[in-house]
Amino acid sequence: MITLAHISDIHLSPMPEVSWRDLLGKRLTGYLNWKLRRHDELNSKTLTSLMSHLQAQKADFTAITGDLVNLALPVEIERAGAWLGALGLADKIAVCPGNHDAYVPGALELARKSWGEYLKGETLDEGAFPFVRRIGELAVISCSSAVPTRPFLAIGRFDEQQAHRLGRILKVMGEADYFRTVLIHHPPNPELQHSSFGLKGHKLFREVIVKHGAELILHGHTHHSSIHSIPGKNREVPVVGVAAASAAQGGTLDDPARYNLFRIERLGDSWTCTMREYGYQRLGTEIVMRLQMRIC
Question: What domain range is 202 assigned to?
Answer without folding.
Answer: 7-13+20-261
